[in-house]
Structure formats: structure tokens, C-alpha cells
């Protein structure tokens, strides 16, 4: 039975809409030396126009189906789909015959292109495979068969890639999720998954999606950004980098906040890389994205419920468990719910130097979100008690934004200094000051120190790190003022 009505105007193609063989996807393309992410544009000229993909003649549809049917039905148990040469050897005669049957006369070049499309369907992820192979594309978004958007250098553009119909997209989704023991259909129409290379995938299909099956892929950075890259892109200044590195080394509890896709996980990865090598690090994530290089690092990953709705292990469960694993540092990929309370309690009971990210609109908003999350933990704590926990647990909030020009920048670093009555008091240590917009639309400005000496500097000094007062915008001769 089809999973959903096919809204494509094309005639029924008689293809069995049951998923065909769900071969293991091809192994990820070999790492290239090109930078794997999209840096802020030095000059935000539009990316080079995409080459229009090969548009095969209408008869190709039948040829493609014939080859797929053959491979799926006749020989699926025989072929090792990771052996692409073997698959090609088997597919080629069927392809030649299907071309003859369809009475298609094609040039050698065209023939090669058709074969490449068939191979991409069998071995990879169909029409989006070439986009996934490109290092300059950071995100791929399929909104039904006729609309595939890509993100390059922080900017969205509509690509020329199209799927045949809804079923074609659905087969790609199945190829992604089936090897993971997950499924997608009317009864479970959304799924989170990962590609073998670590790219994060979300898929949602009709009836929940009204535009056909939708796939969103956040591509995995083979070569994750480092602090120097962030400085080079103008996402932060060397002074801020120096400060935040010292804060992490000194064991500050840091929350990275920001909107969707603002670069929170990337920054978390960078800040986590500052954790000294002699400390035991526990990372807890929904889908393991962090790539820490320290030798003593234990990585935990939450688990969604299985097809029967059982077996879910939430981030919160892992945080609670992590506390029994003698962590020096706990790094949580993202706090979204009740785990916030466990994190705060951990931070307040001697597990200093914990790091996490939170989705929010500003540093102040981050505190409100944490409050709400703690309430979600269902402990019925009085608000004031929650705020006190927050104020004593969190040292620093680093807020990152994706700006209108597509660049990602740290826009605020705010220290949590305590309580005044019922209010948590914060003070900005760094703030992004916009000075203008250049003729290409690029936002000009800098992350500047506010001229306040943060309290956390005492801890930094205790850790044996002396930051020059100029880091905070103070003259060398300025007397540090000390807050009690
Ligand atoms: N400072 C930066 N400059 C340029 N690109 C960046 C920067 N930080 C992150 N990116 C890129 O932006 C994309 C999103 O980054 P990331 O996954 O860290 O965001 P996020 O805020 O964690 O997203 P989500 O809310 O979906 O979890 C990635 O492709 C990443 O390589
Ligand atoms: Mg993230």
C-alpha cells in the first residue's frame, strides 16, 4: 500500500511503492583538502552558479525503474552494494537492454550520465548525492520532489536538483533510516537519523508534511572548525578567544546559546577542545556531533524509542548516569528539557567546568529558558530557588547569532554575577558592536570588551593564567577592581 497519495502530476508509473532493497549507502567520499565548511564570505559574492544537472529524456524513467527492479528483485541477496564496481557490472547489461526496449538512442556521454544517476539511486542517496559530496554545501533541504534548497556560506539557495516524485524521495529516506533499524511511514511519519559519515538527518512525510516528503540534512564537517577559523571568519576576536579559553581551562560553567543553526554545536566543540588533556570528559548528545581530540573522553549518545515505542534513553537519563562515572567535565550537546535541572545540580555540586548549549534569543533569554526547562523537570521547586541554583551554577553565557549577511558571530558574552532580590544579575563582558554594512551587504563591526573586569578572572588567575587587562578593554596600568 502506498504510504501516501502521490501528488505528482506524472502518470502512475506502476512501480511498487514498497521500499525496494535498502542497500547500505556508499561509504562517504574521501576527505578532501578543501575546507569542509562554509566560511563567512570574504566578499559575499554569490556562489558560483550551479551547473544545471543533466535532464534525461522522458523515456529514461522507465529505464531507471527496470534497472532498479532487476537489482531489487532478482539479485539483491547476491550483491554487496558496497562493491560499486560489481553493482555496476551487474546493472550495465540490464541498463543496455532497458535502453533498447525503450527505443532510446543516446550518445555515449548521455549514456554515462544516465548510468551515473542510476548508480546514485542504488548506491547513494539519489539526486542529492552530488550535493552531499560537495564540501562547500553545509546543509541540504528537500521540500518535496521539485524543491531542493542548499546552504552555502550561510546563505540559502534553490538548487536545480529534482526528484521524480514523492516515492523517489521516500526511497531515499528509507535508504537512510532502514540500516539504523528505524522506519518511516504513516504511523511514524517523522524520524531523526544520521548518515554513516555523521551528517544529521531529519525526515518528515505526509500527512504531516503538506509539500511531500521533507528531508533536512546538516552535513557533518569532516574537518571541524577550530578557534583560529572562527577568528579568521570574524566570528570572534583573538582577545575574546583568549578569555574564553582561559575561562574553560579554569573550570567555568559555560552555556553557549543561540538560534537554530547559529553555530552553537560548532562553538561547543571549539570550547571543549580547551579542556585540559588530563581531565576525564563525558560528552552526552542526542546525535554525536562533537569531535573532541582529548584522549580521555567518554562519549554517550541518547537513544530514541524503537518501533514499538520502547527503549528510549533520554539525555536526562544519561546526565544522571554520567554523574556516577567520575567525570571531571560534563559536556552536553544541547539542553532541551529536564536535564537542565540535573546539569545545574551537577554544576553546583563540584562538577565545575561543564559546558552545554541552549536554544535562545539572547543571553538573558537563555536564563528564562533554563528556568522553563527546570520547571519541566517536574520538581515543583519555587522560582526563587531555581533562580538561585542558576545564578550559582552558571558562570558565563556566550551567545552566538547568524546575522543577516549569513555570517555567524559571537554577539554577547555575559557573566552571571549573582542575585539581586528575585532577579539574576548579569553583566556583559563582551558585546558585538555593529558599525555599518558594506556595499556587499556584509555586516561590519567587532566583538568588543565592555571594559568590565569579570569576576571569573579571579578563577582564571587562580588557575595560573594571567590575562592582560587589555583583553577586557582596560589599560595595563588600570587597577583591577574586585567585586565581592
Ligand atoms: N562561526 C562560524 N562561521 C561560519 N560557519 C559556521 C560557524 N559556526 C558554525 N558554522 C556552520 O554553520 C552550520 C551550523 O552550525 P552548528 O551545527 O554548529 O549550529 P547549531 O546552532 O548547533 O545548529 P542547531 O540549532 O541546528 O543544532 C554548520 O554548517 C557549521 O559548519
Ligand atoms: Mg547544534
What would you say this structure looks like, in words?
By secondary structure, the protein is an alpha/beta fold. Helices cover 30% and strands 20% of the residues. The longest helix is centred in the first third of the chain and has 18 residues. The N terminus is likely disordered. The structure holds adenosine-5'-triphosphate (ATP) and magnesium ion. The site of magnesium ion has 3 residues, from helix 8. Adenosine-5'-triphosphate binds next to helix 8.
Please describe the structure with a list of short key phrases separated by commas or semicolons.
nine-stranded mixed beta sheet; single chain; alpha/beta; 484 residues; six-stranded antiparallel beta sheet; binds magnesium ion; binds adenosine-5'-triphosphate
Short description:
The protein has 484 residues and is α/β, with parallel strands linked by helices. Helix content is 30%, strand content 20%. A hairpin with a 5-residue loop joins strand 4 and strand 5.
Protein topology:
Layout: H1 60-74, H2 84-101, H3 108-123, H4 129-133, E1 139-143, E2 148-152, E3 155-158, H5 166-177, E4 190-194, E5 200-204, E6 214-218, H6 227-232, H7 238-249, E7 254-258, H8 264-272, E8 281-285, E9 297-301, H9 315-322, E10 329-332, H10 339-348, E11 355-359, H11 363-376, H12 383-393, E12 396-402, E13 408-420, E14 423-437, E15 443-449, H13 456-462
Parallel strand pairs: 7-11, 7-12, 8-9, 8-10, 10-11
Antiparallel strand pairs: 1-2, 1-6, 2-3, 4-5, 5-6, 12-13, 13-14, 14-15
This protein binds adenosine-5'-triphosphate (ATP) and magnesium ion (MG).
Adenosine-5'-triphosphate is lined by residues 37-40, 138, 218, 221, 225, 230, 233, 235, 258, 260-266, 408.
Amino acid at each position: 500500500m502506498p504510504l501516501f497519495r502521490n501528488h505528482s502530476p506524472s502518470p502512475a508509473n506502476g512501480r511498487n511503492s514498497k521500499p525496494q532493497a535498502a542497500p547500505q549507502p556508499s561509504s562517504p567520499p574521501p576527505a578532501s583538502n578543501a575546507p569542509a565548511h562554509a566560511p563567512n564570505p570574504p566578499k559575499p559574492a554569490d556562489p558560483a552558479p550551479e551547473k544545471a544537472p543533466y535532464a534525461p529524456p522522458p523515456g529514461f524513467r522507465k529505464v531507471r525503474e527496470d534497472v532498479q527492479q532487476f537489482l531489487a528483485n532478482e539479485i539483491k541477496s547476491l550483491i554487496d552494494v558496497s562493491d560499486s564496481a560489481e553493482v555496476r557490472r551487474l546493472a550495465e547489461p540490464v541498463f543496455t537492454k532497458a535502453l533498447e526496449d525503450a527505443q532510446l538512442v543516446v550518445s555515449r556521454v548521455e549514456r554515462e550520465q544516465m548510468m551515473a544517476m542510476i548508480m546514485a539511486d542504488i548506491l547513494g542517496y539519489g539526486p542529492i548525492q552530488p550535493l552531499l559530496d560537495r564540501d562547500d554545501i553545509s546543509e541540504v533541504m528537500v521540500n518535496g520532489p521539485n524543491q531542493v534548497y542548499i546552504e552555502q556560506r550561510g546563505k540559502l539557495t534553490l538548487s536545480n536538483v529534482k526528484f521524480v516524485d514523492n516515492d523517489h524521495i521516500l526511497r531515499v529516506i528509507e535508504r537512510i533510516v532502514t540500516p539504523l533499524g528505524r522506519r518511516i511511514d504513516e504511523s511514524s511519519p517523522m524520524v531523526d537519523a544520521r548518515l554513516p559519515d555523521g551528517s544529521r538527518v531529519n525526515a518528515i512525510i505526509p500527512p504531516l508534511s503538506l509539500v511531500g516528503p521533507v528531508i533536512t540534512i546538516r552535513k557533518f564537517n569532516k574537518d571541524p572548525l577550530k578557534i583560529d577559523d572562527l577568528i579568521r571568519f570574524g566570528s570572534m576576536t583573538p582577545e575574546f578567544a583568549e578569555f574564553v579559553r582561559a575561562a574553560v581551562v579554569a573550570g567555568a560553567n559555560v552555556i553557549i546559546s543561540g538560534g537554530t543553526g547559529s553555530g552553537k554545536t560548532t562553538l561547543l566543540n571549539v570550547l571543549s577542545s580547551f579542556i585540559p588533556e588530563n581531565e576525564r570528559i563525558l560528552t552526552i548528545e542526542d546525535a554525536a556531533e562533537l569531535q573532541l581530540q582529548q584522549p580521555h573522553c567518554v562519549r554517550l549518545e541518547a537513544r530514541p524509542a524503537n518501533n514499538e515505542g520502547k527503549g528510549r534513553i533520554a539525555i536526562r537519563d544519561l546526565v544522571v548516569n554520567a554523574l556516577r562515572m567520575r567525570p571531571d567535565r560534563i559536556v552536553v550537546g544541547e539542553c532541551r528539557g529536564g536535564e537542565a535541572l540535573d546539569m545545574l545540580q551537577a554544576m553546583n555540586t563540584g562538577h565545575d567546568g561543564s559546558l552545554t548549549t541552549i536554544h535562545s534569543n539572547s543571553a538573558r533569554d537563555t536564563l528564562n529558558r533554563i528556568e522553563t526547562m527546570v520547571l519541566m523537570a517536574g520538581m515543583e521547586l519555587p522560582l526563587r530557588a531555581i533562580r538561585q541554583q542558576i545564578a550559582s551554577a552558571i558562570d558565563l553565557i556566550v551567545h552566538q547569532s547568524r546575522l543577516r549577511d549569513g555570517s555567524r558571530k559571537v554577539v554577547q558574552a555575559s557573566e552571571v554575577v549573582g542575585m539581586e532580590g528575585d532577579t539574576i544579575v548579569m553583566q556583559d563582558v563582551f558585546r558585538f558592536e555593529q558599525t555599518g554594512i558594506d556595499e556587499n551587504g556584509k555586516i561590519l563591526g567587532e566583538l568588543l570588551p565592555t571594559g568590565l573586569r569579570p569576576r571569573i578572572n579571579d578563577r582564571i588567575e587562580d588557575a595560573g593564567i594571567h590575562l592582560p587587562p587589555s583583553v577586557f578593554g582596560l589599560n595595563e596600568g588600570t587597577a583591577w577592581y574586585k567585586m565581592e
